[in-house]
Write a structure and sequence with these properties.
The protein has helices at about 40, 50-70, 90-105, 115-120, 165-180, 185-195, 215-230, 235-260, 275-285, 295-300, 305-315; strands spanning about 5-10, 15-25, 30-35, 80-85, 110-115, 135-140, 145-150, 155-160, 265-270, 290-295. It has about 325 residues and is α/β, with parallel strands linked by helices. The chain folds into 2 domains: about 5-125 and about 300-315, 2-Layer Sandwich (Nucleotidyltransferase, domain 5); about 135-295, Nucleotidyltransferase, domain 5 (2-Layer Sandwich), CATH 3.30.420.40. A 5-stranded mixed sheet has the order 3-2-1-4-5, sandwiched between helices. A 5-stranded mixed sheet has the order 8-7-6-9-10, sandwiched between helices. The chain binds 5'-O-[(R)-(carboxyoxy)(hydroxy)phosphoryl]adenosine.
C-alpha cells in the first residue's frame, strides 16, 4: 500500500515576492503561488523595504488561502510549515516567519526556518532532477552572488562571494543608467541580443584564476563612465558588452571550483539564472561527464516551493525550529 505523502507549506517574503506553496514529499509541487511586487517598486528602480513589508502583510493570508485551494487541501492536511528566516529585508522576512509560527502553534505542527540561499539551490530538485550530493551551487540573484560546495541539506561550504554588489543588482543599476527600467536583467538580456556591433569591451573583473571572489561595482562604474563620455552611443552595444563581462566571471568561477574540487554536478539558481546567455555560456563549457541543472524561470525567482521542498529534508531528520527563532538580515 502506498504510504501517505508528507505535505508541507512553504512561505517566502524575504524581498519583493510574497509566496506560499504546497509541496508533497519534498519534490512534488501541488501549488506555488507567487505575488510579485515589481510594479510597486519600479518607480524607485529598486526595492523599497517599507513598501515591501506592507505589501507582504496585505497579501500573505490571501496567498496562503490560494495555495491551499489550488492544492485541494486544508490546513489540517499539513505535516509541517516552513518559512524563510534569513537572509533578507528584516521587515519583509518577519511576515512569512510570523505567519508560519502562527500556523505551527495553532495546528501543533513543526516549524522549519529556512536559509533562502540554500533553498534557491534546491529548486532544480523540484523539477524531476534526482537529488545528489555533493554539488557546486552558484547562486546569482538581486541580493547575492556566491559559490558553494553543497554537501547535504544544511551543509553548505562557502567558496566565494561578491566583495561588493550582487550580479543582479549590477544588471538593475546598469539598466537604470541606460534608461531601461527595473528589473534590469530581462531587459538588458533582450537588448543585448539585438546588438549588431560587438566591439566594445569593458575591463575584466578579478582576472586572477585562483581568485574565488566576485565583484560588480567596477564594471558598473566603467559602464557609467562610458555612457557619460559617449552620450550618443548605441545602448544595445553597451548592454551586450556589460552582460558578457558580468556573466563571464560567473562561468569561470563555477567551472574552476568544480574542476579543482572534482565535483561533476553543478546547480545554478536565483533570478539571474533565468538569463539565456548565461545558460548558453555554461552549456558550451560543460564537459560530457559534467551535468548542470537550472531551475525553470518560475523557480529561479523567489518562491515558496523551494522553501517547502528543502524543509521536507529537515522535517524528515527531525530538525525543527522553536517559536522563538528569529529573522536575520545576513547569514
Ligand atoms: O532571485 P531574485 O528573484 O530576487 C532577488 O534577489 O531579489 O532575483 C532578481 C534579480 C534582479 O536583479 C533581476 O534583474 C535579475 O534577478 N534577473 C536577471 C534576469 N531575470 C532576472 N538578470 C539577468 N538576466 C535575466 N534574464
Amino acid at each position: 500500500m502506498k504510504e501517505k505523502s508528507i505535505i508541507g507549506l512553504g512561505l517566502e517574503s524575504s524581498c519583493d515576492e510574497t509566496s506560499a506553496a504546497i509541496v508533497a514529499d519534498g519534490k512534488v509541487i501541488l501549488a506555488n503561488i507567487i505575488n510579485s511586487q515589481i510594479d510597486l517598486h519600479s518607480d524607485y528602480s529598486g526595492v523599497v523595504p517599507e513598501i515591501a513589508s506592507r505589501a507582504h502583510l496585505e497579501n500573505i493570508n490571501i496567498i496562503i488561502e490560494e495555495a491551499l485551494k489550488t492544492a485541494g487541501i486544508s490546513f489540517y492536511d499539513l505535516d509541517y510549515v516552513a518559512a524563510t528566516n534569513r537572509p533578507g529585508l528584516i521587515g519583509s522576512l518577519l511576515i512569512a516567519l510570523q505567519s508560519a509560527k502562527a500556523i505551527s502553534f495553532t495546528l501543533n505542527i513543526p516549524l522549519v526556518a529556512i536559509n533562502h540561499l540554500e533553498a534557491h539551490l534546491y529548486a532544480p530538485f523540484l523539477e524531476g532532477n534526482e537529488l545528489s550530493f555533493p554539488f557546486i551551487g552558484l547562486l546569482v540573484s538581486g541580493g547575492n552572488t556566491a559559490l558553494y560546495k553543497v554537501i547535504a541539506p544544511g551543509q553548505m561550504q562557502l567558496l566565494g562571494k561578491t566583495v561588493d554588489d550582487a550580479v543582479g543588482e549590477a544588471f538593475d543599476k546598469v539598466s537604470k543608467y541606460l534608461g531601461l527600467g527595473y528589473p534590469g536583467g530581462p531587459v538588458i538580456e533582450k537588448i543585448a541580443a539585438s546588438a549588431t556591433e560587438r566591439k566594445l569591451i569593458f575591463p575584466k573583473i578579478l582576472p586572477d584564476p585562483g581568485d574565488r571572489r566576485f565583484s560588480y561595482s567596477g564594471i558598473k562604474t566603467a559602464v557609467i563612465n562610458y555612457l557619460k563620455s559617449n552620450p550618443q552611443c548605441d545602448i544595445s552595444e553597451v548592454a551586450y558588452a556589460f552582460q558578457e563581462r558580468a556573466l563571464e566571471i560567473l562561468v569561470r568561477r563555477l567551472f574552476d571550483a568544480a574542476r579543482e574540487l572534482g565535483i561533476k554536478t553543478l546547480v545554478v539558481a536565483g533570478g539571474v539564472a533565468a538569463n539565456g546567455r548565461l545558460r548558453e555560456m555554461i552549456l558550451s563549457e560543460l564537459r560530457p561527464d559534467e551535468r548542470v541543472m537550472f531551475p525553470s524561470p518560475k523557480l529561479c525567482t523567489d518562491n515558496g516551493a523551494m522553501i517547502a521542498g528543502l524543509a521536507y529534508h529537515y522535517f524528515m531528520s527531525g530538525k525543527f525550529d522553536s517559536l522563538n527563532c528569529d529573522v536575520m538580515s545576513r547569514v
